[in-house]
TrEMBL record:
Biased composition (Low complexity): 28-45, 52-61
Lineage, highest ranks first: Bacteria, Bacillati, Actinomycetota, Actinomycetes, Pseudonocardiales
Signal peptide: 1-25
Name of this chain's protein: Basic membrane protein A
Organism: Goodfellowiella coeruleoviolacea
Broad class of where this protein is predominantly found: membrane
CDD domains recorded: PBP1_PrnA-like
Transmembrane region(s): none
Segments for region (Disordered): 28-65
PANTHER family per UniProt: ABC TRANSPORTER GUANOSINE-BINDING PROTEIN NUPN, TRANSCRIPTIONAL ACTIVATOR PROTEIN MED
Keyword Signal: yes
Family: Belongs to the BMP lipoprotein family.
């Protein structure tokens, strides 16, 4: 009898262990499809990993010695200005680099910032002020300056202007600084797919403009390339014409929370200073977030949320601003890239914090496919 009881106990323990192991297997939701789904613990089936990258991007910023000490550099920021932890800060970093590397005197620089909902006249007045005071080059940060430049640049034909994210037709003294945001965002989408535990991610756009749709398009394409069955939430804070979406952290928090409540556990924002609210929502919900423009893991203004920032889509506005100032100092802007893309190191992704170190080979593999022309990234959402 005692022997029989002992046998029953052994059988019960074995059954319990088997059930426990089966439960653990269900909880992880990990699928091994032979595609090397490194770091992925989702219910998604990941696509096969791309081959190792064979092409390396070339940096546009060289250490050539150039004297910029005679320049007076003006910088006209978009709303948020220096300190937005994003787009404008990247431009500010480029100016700071020009001061430290080219000998531009800080006393010969001037920075002015746009206000939310300001008129076109206000933008024109800002540019005329800088030009009248002898600043050249003058760098305008953001497509919102397009119309103002179209009016002002012809009035100051000897002044050199540049505009980030736009072109100004018929103004030979205006240099466009254009980026392939969709390419960098593609890599952000891949990273999100690999790191999501729910196979459900989100995108938060600041203002619904063609420019921000490039971020959305690349992100969606990258995520679906890595995990075809992934679910994606996508929302904007404000419609086109209402630029407050770039400077409204509380609204960013509300929209991000809504996407998290819907099931998303990785959020990518392209919303300027509003991204602070997205990070806050991610931290509260124990989700992950992807920054934009600058390496936001290292940005002091969002330092309280750095533990949830897994990577950032780097848009090297700093490189573009610095390279443009250097080109003006040399007297030749024709050598600048037509588009700052992955190949020119104009966009990319950050590794600060180490959260994507385990999938770096995957990200670099997709990067190589884009650089080699084997993947074409769309700049508008949808098919």
């Amino acid at each position: 009898m005692r022997r029989r009881m002992r046998g029953l106990v052994v059988t019960a323990v074995a059954l319990t262990s088997a059930l426990s192991l089966a439960s653990c297997a269900r909880d992880t939701g990990t699928q091994n499809n032979g595609a090397g789904n490194t770091g992925n613990k989702t219910g998604c089936t990941l696509a096969p990993k791309p081959p190792a990258a064979s092409t390396t991007a070339s940096s546009s910023a060289q250490d050539e010695q150039v004297d910029g000490s005679k320049l007076k550099v003006g910088l006209a920021y978009d709303i948020g200005g220096r300190g937005d932890a994003s787009f404008n800060d990247a431009a500010a970093a480029g100016l700071d680099m020009a001061i430290s590397k080219l000998g531009v005197s800080k006393d010969n620089t001037k920075e002015l910032t746009a206000s939310p909902q300001e008129s076109e006249d206000a933008k024109q007045t800002r540019l005329r002020q800088l030009a009248s005071e002898g600043y050249s080059p003058i760098i305008t940060v953001g497509f919102a300056y397009s119309d103002a430049l179209k009016a002002v640049a012809p009035q100051f034909p000897d002044t050199k202007f540049a505009i980030v994210d736009a072109t100004v037709d018929g103004a030979p003294n205006v240099t466009p600084l254009i980026f392939a945001e969709e390419q960098g965002s593609f890599l952000a989408g891949v990273a999100a797919a690999y790191k999501s535990k729910s196979c459900h991610i989100g995108f938060v756009g600041g203002v619904e403009t063609p420019l921000i749709k490039k971020f959305e398009a690349g992100y969606i394409q990258g995520a679906k390339a890595a995990a075809p069955d992934i679910k994606i939430e996508s929302k904007y804070l404000t419609p086109a014409g209402d630029n407050s979406g770039f400077q409204d952290p509380p609204k960013g928090n509300v929209v991000a929370k809504g996407e998290i409540d819907a099931g998303a556990d990785v959020l990518y924002h392209a919303s300027g200073a509003s991204g602070k609210g997205v990070f806050e929502a991610a931290k509260t919900a124990n989700a992950l977030a992807i920054g934009v423009d600058s390496d936001q893991y290292n940005q002091a203004t969002v330092a309280d949320f750095k533990d949830v920032i897994m990577t950032s889509m780097i848009k090297r506005v700093d490189v573009a601003v610095y390279d443009y100032v250097k080109a003006v100092a040399k007297g030749d802007v024709s050598t600048l890239p037509k588009v700052f893309d992955l190949k020119s190191d104009g966009v990319g992704y950050s590794t600060s914090g180490g959260k994507v170190d385990d999938i770096k080979d995957v990200l670099d593999g997709y990067k190589g496919q884009i650089v080699d022309g084997k993947i074409t990234v769309k700049d508008t959402p949808g098919n």
